[in-house]
Amino acid sequence: MSLATTVNGIAFENPFLLASGPPGTNGKVIAKSFDLGWGGMVIKTISLDASKVVNTAPRYGKLRSRESNEVLGFENIELISDRPFEIWLDELRQLKKNYPRHVLIASIMEEYRREAWHEIVRRTQETGVDAFELNLSCPHGLPERKMGMAMGEDPALVKEVTGWVKEVSTIPVWAKMTPNVGSVTASARAAIEAGADGISAINTILSVIGVDLKTLRPMPTVEGYAVPGGYSGQAVRPIALRQVMEIARAFPGASVSGMGGIETGADAAQFFLLGAHTVQICTGAMLRGYEIIAELKAELEKFLGDHKFGSVAEAVGRSLPYFTTHADLVLRQKKSKESRANRDAETWKGAIAKETDLLTS
Ligand SMILES: Cc1cc2nc3c(=O)[nH]c(=O)nc-3n(C[C@H](O)[C@H](O)[C@H](O)COP(=O)(O)O)c2cc1C
């Protein structure tokens, strides 16, 4: 079965994308992922001035299962790409030349200045990339420059910045949401009102992965100190599913790229059923290897076949109608109890009538 799908006019060979992060760190690894069969790549977030981006080590932390030692949750304090913008432009140009039919999405982030957003959009789209993903959601590192989540948690800023991008963008624009807000739909609405073609969700969840009980220092510890980071991996999947569902229900006209804790085809299928048109994977590929794409495709094909869906698009949103209100759940349960009681009463009546017939005949 073909997993091909078209979203915002972009043809994807399959709906599996590597999410912005280490999997899209440079042209070489991106080319390798295209060779392996990923349907698309969202590059590590880029900005005009990479010299302001300074990473630390260590910058990752893991939450493991007590029984199996399997990694359930993953925290990072990694910033956006620290590689020069000009080098990125060359690599993007080269990638589009060598892989014209593979979908290449540029994740971009800038300071709160209209000219800066105009410049990054203009110069990046000249390389031939297929779409933009606006990183309005990185939870750590650059709030003092009002970048990332500092923008994405404020619907007024989301609207303004998305509007600036749409003023000059000639390709589709996805706005990537932060889950670290009370209502994800408020920022998504602002992006859509400003003309965003799609919404990506979720970025990482603000977290502290743990405290080292020997040194008493919070982790990941850099020279004895720490900052809260972004949580991802399997543990965040239920939260991601809920936010994707809320976005899909609220904005049926927008495309949704769902992510957060996807590691298998079955995980991905749940995102499609709750309204995602494509899915993205970051931590799962870091932990299990980029080769998982073969397994993901086979599992999704089997799921679609088992349910007689003719395409990915046919599965999108199929489980959304089964969300309702709590009051409605109570009413449904009451009705079903009543009809069971009525059925039981009918059965008894029938049995008594039969016995009476036997006795009187
Ligand atoms: C180490 C690491 C670095 C990341 N860097 C970025 C980034 O530069 N830009 C961005 O938009 N998201 C970034 N993310 C977030 C992921 O793209 C994704 O939204 C999040 O991790 C949830 O998906 P997952 O559970 O599949 O990892 C990063 C995630 C990790 C784990």
Question: What labels describe this entry?
Answer:
single chain; 361 residues; alpha/beta; TIM Barrel; eight-stranded parallel β-barrel; 12 helices; 16 strands; binds flavin mononucleotide
Polypeptide structure, described:
The chain has 361 residues and is α/β, with parallel strands linked by helices. The protein has helices spanning 27-36, 85-98, 114-125, 149-152, 155-168, 184-193, 237-250, 265-273, 283-288, 292-306, 312-315, 326-360, and strands spanning 5-7, 10-12, 16-18, 40-42, 60-64, 71-76, 103-108, 131-135, 173-176, 198-201, 205-207, 210-211, 218-219, 229-232, 255-259, 278-281. It has two domains: 5-322, Alpha-Beta Barrel (TIM Barrel); 324-361. The chain is built from twelve helices and 16 strands. α3 (114-125) crosses α5 (155-168), α5 packs parallel to α6 (184-193) and α8 crosses α10. The longest helix has 35 residues, at 326-360. The mean pLDDT is 96.
Q: How would you summarize the topology of this molecule?
A:
Blueprint lengths: L4 E3 L2 E3 L3 E3 L8 H10 L3 E3 L17 E5 L6 E6 L8 H14 L4 E6 L5 H12 L5 E5 L13 H4 L2 H14 L4 E4 L7 H10 L4 E4 L3 E3 L2 E2 L6 E2 L9 E4 L4 H14 L4 E5 L5 H9 L4 E4 L1 H6 L3 H15 L5 H4 L10 H35 L1
Parallel strand pairs: 3-4, 3-16, 4-7, 7-8, 8-9, 9-10, 10-15, 15-16
Antiparallel strand pairs: 1-2, 5-6, 6-14, 11-14, 12-13
Helix pairs in contact: 3-5, 5-6, 6-7, 8-10
This protein binds flavin mononucleotide.
